[in-house]
Amino acid sequence: MSPRLNPHTPETMTPRQREIHDDIVSRRGRLGGPFPAWLRNPELAECAQKLGAYCRYDSNLTPQMSELAILVVARHWTASVEWAIHAPIAERVGVPAAAIAAIRDNDQPEFDDRTSQVIYAYASELLRTTRVSDTLHERAVQVIGERRTVDLVALIGYYSLVALTLNAFDMPLPAGASDPFAPQSR
Asked: Residue 185 carries which DSSP code?
């Protein structure tokens, strides 16, 4: 549990918090990430959980596209917990290990495919400048389509909310994980 949150167990939750808790656990298998913080407001937890489920599991983005974008978000916000959770997933779904390491180290990753190039460029530019150039936007629509571009922006926004929540409440790293952004981890 985060040192910034008072202990909160299913036994101490309100009926509404318990209902949302049980729904989250039934969908995700556990209550981790930002959910312990969000459950302090069950309406927020419910809405965020639904948006997150769409962004992660039901959007039109492939798992590789999603996980690549999530890593860009995690690195931008220096969200160690988000990175520790998603870097192994990204590698499993086909994001090259060299690209993962480059993103972690704030270096420019190299991709052999246009889709990964555009996902990385779009997420990076949007987070860095809060905008996307017309040229890059048009390229994204050409390469991944308009609907996937909308889903990409939603995913970037959702995982920014996750990253900020994890950072604000100083949520702990998963068991056995080390801080990926600590100088000794490179």
From this structure: G
